[in-house]
Amino acid sequence: MIDSILETRGLTKRFGGLVASKAISLDLRQGEIHALIGPNGAGKSTLIKQIAGGLQPDEGSVHFDGKDVSKLSTAARARLGMGRTFQISSLAMEYTVLQNVVLGALGHRGNVFWFFNNVMKDAELLETADAALTKVGLEDFRNFRASDLSHGQRRQLEVAVALTLDPKAFLMDEPMAGLGAEGSQQLIGFLDTLRHQAPILLIEHDMDAVFSLADRVSVLVYGEIIATGTVDDIRTNSDVRNAYLGEEGAA
Ligand SMILES: Nc1ncnc2c1ncn2[C@@H]1O[C@H](COP(=O)(O)OP(=O)(O)OP(=O)(O)O)[C@@H](O)[C@H]1O
């Protein structure tokens, strides 16, 4: 039996007459990066919102770690281990790297009535935060302000914040966006190792990143998955090339 941490079954979402998700069934398996690609407006964000809990499907269900989570809130899904990253605005830019992670860990405890100064003396919280920073390779930057980090390092910091929730899987929405060539290469290397900590469902337009990272790729076109397979399967699939990749994927 295939060991899937996340599974969608027949997810369908309509906006008036537009069917943004058409009976989408996909899964995320332990240890893998499963990339979701498709042209603008194909329905990638709509799908990830339904998985994360921000949008209710009209039909279908979402299963996570063996449970039907379809009716749970975003916060409840996060507590079960669904780690969503790269909402960059969630970082407090004027705070240090360490403070950002402590705030994330505090959210995990569900206690929002702490005074910040006290929090920064809490040994258990600091230990959790330091462990997360070490895992993402930012331990030497703990006293830097978030605003002083490069774009790529901010993404690593987002992952560190997510790690304080002990995620069993990551949902990532365009992590490469806005990174230069060097930043992209660094983040590719980072995600490559992160998959062993928790598998990643990756929405990404950067085909170099997708083709170098993904164990499997699903292609979404007009709300429908037209193919799922390995990078080689997808590159050579004539339907995919006609609908999306064109000559770009043939390189
Ligand atoms: N709240 C909404 N109300 C009405 N239509 C919507 C809503 N959200 C998305 N859509 C429509 O659903 C379709 C899918 O949009 P979605 O943002 O999921 O695509 P996407 O693949 O993420 O696109 P992009 O790559 O540009 O981010 C689009 O036609 C979009 O206009």
Provide the descriptors you would attach to this structure in a database record.
251 residues; alpha/beta; Rossmann fold; 2 domains; six-stranded mixed sheet; four-stranded antiparallel sheet; 10 helices; 10 strands; 38% helix; globular; binds adenosine-5'-triphosphate; ATP binding; ATP hydrolysis activity; nucleotide-binding; P-loop_NTPase
Brief characterization of the structure:
With 251 residues, the protein is an alpha/beta fold. It has helices at residues 44-52, 74-80, 97-109, 116-119, 123-136, 151-163, 181-194, 207-213, 231-236, 238-245; strands at 4-15, 18-29, 33-37, 59-64, 67-68, 82-85, 169-173, 200-203, 216-221, 224-229.
Question: Can you walk me through this structure?
Answer:
The chain has 251 residues and is α/β, with parallel strands linked by helices. It has 2 domains: 158 residues, Rossmann fold (3-Layer(aba) Sandwich); 78 residues, no CATH class. β9 and β10 form a beta hairpin. α3 crosses α5. 39% of the residues are buried. It binds adenosine-5'-triphosphate.
**Separation, N- and C-terminal Cα atoms:** 35 Å
**Total individual domains:** 2
Number of helical runs? 10
CATH topology of the largest domain: Rossmann fold
Q: Tell me the CATH superfamily of the largest domain.
A: P-loop containing nucleotide triphosphate hydrolases
Low-confidence stretches: none
Write down the overall geometry: globular
Specify the structural class. alpha/beta
How much of the sequence lies in strands comes to: 15-25%
CATH class of the largest domain: Alpha Beta
What is the CATH architecture descriptor of the largest domain?
3-Layer(aba) Sandwich
Major sheet size, sense and barrel closure:
6 strands, mixed
Order of helices and strands: EEEHEEHEHHHHEHEHEEHH
Please tell me how large the radius of gyration is.
19 Å
What's the multimeric state? Answer: single chain
Cofactors, ions and other ligands in the entry: adenosine-5'-triphosphate
Q: Please list the strands of the largest sheet in the order they lie side by side.
A: 6-7-8-3-9-10
Round the mean pLDDT to the nearest integer and report it.
Answer: 88
